[in-house]
Known about the structure:
Oligomer: single chain
Shape: globular
Strand order of the largest sheet: 4-5-15-10-11-14
Number of strands: 16
Largest sheet: 6 strands, mixed
Structural class: alpha/beta
Bound molecules: pyridoxal-5'-phosphate
Helix content: 40-55%
Distance between the termini: 38 Å
Amino acid sequence: MYYTSTRDNNVKITSAQAIAQGISVDGGLFMPEEIPSITLDEISKLSEMKYNERAAYIFAKYLTDFTDEEIHYCTDNAYTDKKFSTDNIAEISHLFDGTYMLELWHGPTCAFKDMALQILPYLLTTSAKKINCDKKIVILVATSGDTGKAALEGFKDVPGTEIMVFYPEQGVSPMQKRQMTTQEGENVAVCAIKGNFDDAQNGVKAIFTNDEIKAVLDGKGMMFSSANSINWGRLAPQIIYYISAYATLVADEEIKLGDKINIVVPTGNFGNILAAYFAKQMGLPVGKLICASNKNKILTDFINTGVYDRNRDFYTTISPSMDILISSNLERLLYLLCGKNDAVIRDWFGKLATEGRYEVTDEVKALLKESFVGGCCDDEETKATIAEVYKKYSYTLDTHTAVAVKVYEDYKKATGDTTRTIIASTASPYKFSASVLEALEGKECTLDEFDMVDRLHELSQYEIPEALAELKNKEIRFAGSVEKTEMKDFVFKTLGV
Ligand SMILES: *Cc1c(COP(=O)(O)O)cnc(C)c1O
């Protein structure tokens, strides 16, 4: 199987090249030329396997240039109980009748990003070896909070790599900030920027695609790659857990093989929900994909109108990992929906860059609505949902997952659709203790970050993740911040070039 670019169909490269390179030179994202299929028979077989085996089975369909041994090296090292606090890697909890929480946050940094970022370093270093690349790989990450820490944990002290993370100074939770500024490892650097996530993401993209900067690195035996969800090596691992969850529900006799399920995803950069769409296109029996947004509801508007318009206010919310106005992975979906027409994608995303707005065709609008439902809620509704679910079901939601639950409840009320439903639960509530406590106790919490964790433990009875508890005693290593125009200087300084 070969990979092409959403902005140039003439690109034809292997998965190893796509993963090593991260983003295409034309600014497009890499896509498999065809989406492979999975049959119900295969899904039935998967239901008897462990997570790492399921992952290897599905990866083999996408990474056809990898040997079995290479794939197993990646999956067996990433998906172990040494890295995840549960044997199942992803847990499924029953919330209420026919509704399942797919808990994707049992990894080392307590957010779903670990599902992909624990394996990405293995995929990336294996890919580099396969294409005979002996350059040092420099990973640049823009983060709205969770990706940064997950990438740092994944790449720390991985030979032949160096990683730099940029986050919006005012845009992450205190715990997220603490997780990043205390990061250990010899090959890591973290920097706050005076701007929002989109500024950070645009800055990283600009550095990536700047030929002058690339030439400087090349001269020093280094190359850039990306750990953001624009990298195919981030997206592919996310397809796995949806198929795996379905297989588990079949094994547990919650559903029958072939039954349709709906999937709800709290969405920011559109990576997680796009992975669910890939699973559906492969043949997983999926009805609706419900795209849940917070007050930054650009995707809700887009799904409802076909107009993507980023000329709007940006809000800082209590679900910061979804505070995004440019959802990069939407480009991959639109490429598929417009019949892989690279000229159309160049036109729309050119307009997004210059005018901040584009409108898709009626045909694409119809296709969008066939698979996707969009919904949103604000911080007050998010908090009310956390309180209500806690009271009714003794289940403590984080602020992102609560957005998904609220949007799903609205959807169910509006449509009467009772299809069994998987809700992607994307973070441990402990990562957002302040907001979760405020929701549960009805007043602002004035405790310090770690006392809040203890208080939340009293209420939720969930085990406190060790990785968060031990931050208390860790030294702050990265306290600095820069203007958004100074990101390049920070990169050069860190690399010593
Ligand atoms: C990143 C993140 C999201 C959004 O996922 P996308 O793939 O960017 O759409 C939602 N919730 C949490 C907790 C996250 O870390």
